[in-house]
Specification:
This protein is an alpha+beta fold. 37% of the residues lie in helices and 22% in strands. The chain has a seven-stranded mixed β-sheet with strand order 1-7-6-5-4-2-3. β6 and β7 form a beta hairpin. α4 runs antiparallel to α5. The longest helix has 23 residues. The protein is elongated. The two termini are 35 Å apart. The mean pLDDT is 92.
Length: 182
């Protein structure tokens, strides 16, 4: 049985022990969209053959499963195998004690009065990876500014106030992310 967890952004950031943060942008830009369009066509072709005729070769079946992971599920910065999303671009690295991370902590500590509840599926385009001093990932935070939704990974949700997302949007814009209009 799938176990969903929900933490407040306040509890999440206050309990997180890390030494530095890498900031990522992914699943956006012309290059990504063009590549996705071509690969999706390949995926749909293999999917149709599999459903209608179930006559994929072993190589085609492997490719179908690989593509199904990219198009059949919500995409996260780091997948269940520990691999970074192929479109991810590290934009910044900040030590835990920098003004940028203090700003981020304050954003995540925004009092929660109004949790957004959009009915769309999130498309994560901005993410944070929190690291220990030894370079191990402590946690990742996937952020959809359009749906106002956050997850550390599949089924592990972080609840934030609507104001939190507006502040996160400005945080990423200030870092130079090509954030979609809200």
């Amino acid at each position: 049985m799938i176990q969903y967890t929900y933490l407040s952004s306040i509890t999440y950031i206050n309990s997180l022990k890390f030494d530095y943060v890498n900031v990522y942008s992914f699943q956006r830009g012309t290059k990504f969209l063009e590549r996705s369009y071509l690969i999706r066509k390949e995926y749909e072709k293999l999917k149709n053959r599999k459903v209608r005729h179930n006559n994929l070769t072993t190589v085609e079946e492997g490719r179908f499963l690989e593509l199904d992971e990219l198009f059949g599920y919500t995409q996260y910065l780091v997948n269940e195998k520990g691999h970074f999303h192929p479109s991810s671009i590290k934009t910044h690295t900040f030590a835990a004690s920098t003004p940028e991370i203090n700003r981020l902590k304050n954003i995540m500590r925004t009092e929660i009065k109004d949790i957004p509840a959009w009915m769309c599926a999130p498309v994560y385009r901005d993410a944070l990876a929190f690291y220990s001093e030894s370079g191990e990932i402590v946690s990742t935070l996937n952020i959809c500014l359009s749906c106002q939704y956050m997850e550390t990974n599949r089924f592990n949700h972080i609840n934030g106030d609507a104001k939190t997302y507006n502040l996160l949007r400005q945080f990423f814009i200030d870092l130079g992310h090509a954030v979609e209009p809200g």
